[in-house]
Amino acid sequence: MTDFSQARVNMVDCQIHTSGIVNSEVLNSFGTVPRELFVPEKMRDIAYADESLDIGQGRFLLEPAIHAKMIQAANPVQDDVVLDIGSASGYSSAILSPIVTTIIALENNKRQMDKAIKLWNQTGACNIALIEGELAKGVADQAPYSLIIINGAITEVPKKILGQLSVGGRLVTIIKQQNSPVGRATMFLKSDGGSISSKVLFDASAPLIGGFEKETAFNF
């Protein structure tokens, strides 16, 4: 039987910490949230593998090191209001839960949503509001957000989502073209004047998440 507590320690020590993660809140969150609960039961023995995990219905958990590096780069703080897009079974929101004030989790897969609610209740993540809707549209009714995270690779960022950032807000995702094996984790920032700038953070491999077509995208 797998010792999940030890597997979690090993993930933090051997995958996340060694990839340059020094933010104590990020390390603590990855070290305490039981990742094995957020994957199908038949996958629990590989829950802490250093790769993205397909959890069904077109959703997946990002590779731990990539996920942690994206969050550290976003530098979440206690008063952040976060839009977590493609929250799937809820792991990404559970990781952010102890670090920020409020999370709006956006998902359009009912099975994943039902599982997320149960797991948040089980793990005590009580500052997450789950919204059902199209991922590429964001959640305009609750905007603006100081931080937006898209849990997967997309080809370009939709204008509607960038428009939901607050002044000084940041968005983190992986930009990858359709036939490319590797993308780039990228941060988008909204200036005081409302303009959007971007910064490539690091190369990252992750599956493309559906629903983000180019015709709705932001062009530089």
Q: What attributes does this structure have?
A:
26% helix; two-stranded antiparallel sheet; globular; 6 helices; 220 residues; 7-stranded mixed sheet; Rossmann fold
Rg: 16 Å
Number of domains: 1
Overall pLDDT level: 93
How many separate helices? 6
Strand content: 25-35%
CATH homology superfamily name: Vaccinia Virus protein VP39
- Helix and strand content put the structural class at alpha/beta
Give the helix proportion (percent range).
25-40%
How would a textbook summarize the main sheet?
Answer: 7 strands, mixed
Order of SSEs: HHEEHEHEHEEHEEE
Could you list the spans in which at least 5 consecutive residues all have pLDDT below 50?
A: 215-220
Q: What's a quick, concise take on this entry?
A:
The chain is built from six helices and nine strands. The chain has 220 residues and is of the alpha/beta class.
Description:
This protein is α/β, with parallel strands linked by helices and 220 residues long. 26% of the residues lie in helices and 28% in strands. The longest helix is centred in the middle third of the chain and has 14 residues. Helix 1 runs antiparallel to helix 2. Helix 6 links the parallel strand 6 and strand 7.
Secondary-structure map with pairings?
Blueprint: H1 4-16, H2 24-32, E1 53-56, E2 59-61, H3 64-74, E3 81-85, H4 91-96, E4 102-107, H5 110-123, E5 128-132, E6 145-154, H6 159-162, E7 165-175, E8 183-190, E9 196-204
Parallel strand pairs: 3-4, 3-6, 4-5, 6-7
Antiparallel strand pairs: 1-2, 7-8, 8-9
